[in-house]
# Entry
Amino acid sequence: MLHYSESAFVEPEERMLDEAPPQRKDFISFGPFRFFATQRLLEKDGVPLNLGSRALDLLSMLIERAAEVVSKRELMARVWPDLIVEEGSLRFHIASLRKVLGDGQSGVRYVTNVAGRGYCFVAPIGRSPALAESWVADRNAKLPARLLRMVGRDEAVQAVSEQLLGRRFVTIVGPGGIGKTTVSVSVAHAKISEFGGAIHFVDLGAIDDPSLVPRAIASTLDLPVNSDSPMQDLLSFVRDRRMLLVLDNCEHLIETAAPVAERIFSEAPRVYILATSRESLQVEGEQVYRLPPLPCPPEAAVGLTAGEAMSFPAVRLFVERVIASGVPFVLRDADAPIVADLCRRVDGIALALELAASRVAALGVRGTAALLNGQLRFLWQGRRTAPPRHQTLGATLDWSHNLLSDFARVVLRRLAVFVGTFSLEAARSVAAETLIEGGQVVEALASLVAKSLVVTEIGPTSARYRLFDTTRSYALGKLIRSGEAAAVELRHATNNREASH
# Structure
């Protein structure tokens, strides 16, 4: 199992280094110690010390958050990211760290325990010139805090980072709640030093007037704009500066955000742009990165064990969020297939997984899975501090639905009759009727694909389409309430018996 205690055994210590530590400038000093984070090396008075890898991880995080109380949950998530451990393991390695530091000897304190809250690094620290410069950059960057623990997105962060540095303009595209903002913020934090702290995060989701886009960017840059041409003032300011602009949640303002981003890209050659949107901006210079769902166990995984299930990021995120909600949950073999099926049915979408996990305290895993069949899941409440569009699944889908044309809304709800994949011809036969022609269905379908509401599966000879399960359930509710469900189902049964297989 993935639930264990380490308090009964001593972690093998890292070997004493015979050679002198590499001559680097990036270290943190406290008392007689110097900590080289990059090399995972702690030395006292110039002599390398033996310290186990878990204790090094703890020291690194406590120093990063010096003078702050770091909760036990945060420390355990950092040191044991893929495991469920007992609190005794944390106490054991904190004790090992204190012993090496000589904590408490001669009245000197380094790590203190704050009862009921966690641990705090209390010794004064100094930074080498290189680290001090990096720290100033961190303080200057205008970014939301990144998640303490990001599951299954390391490859995406790496890929987006490489595209961004190579092409200067990347848009992360995907459906609501899939994690676009999480990835963009993680990329931005990883590039703080590279941009000298000149990173600016613009949350366009907070405004609803397209004309305010240039002013919102200018405001983030602390640029006063008093003229009637804020775009010109903005371009004059950024034209010769090197910076990274993160434009988050562009989809509802895309008709304005797209040309603004294009002009900045073309007229300010040292500005890098990282955008997030439920559809691409479709402008010059843009590179699109389509963020996939978190991988889930396949349906063919017969006899799935808990250990096997936990190798999939969607399962790991679900389990972590259940535990974070206060449930003493351990994934067991008997529940692994149920959790795997739950993850598939919410399409590996991070927000849906988190909302489902929040129900386990009241309903249990099996009860939560059973309710996925109904419309109640669209009302499950998420974090109180989340943007309104992310507080429920219904709100997330409403946000996307409200951006559709009338024709696209009709086509979306009619496509909900397809349980699996379907062809373009099947979509036309089911969604078209006297008020909507086949050609309009094709255009609406293309729009739904662009807006991440319909998934395309390109085969060797043709394309097939499908709706995410959560999107299909949402659209099915719309179809039933529209009063046209019977007619659409009849067309589906009459003309598309093969399309639903």
Q: What stands out?
A: The chain has a mean pLDDT of 83. The first strand starts at residue 3 and ends at 4. The longest helix spans residues 87-101.
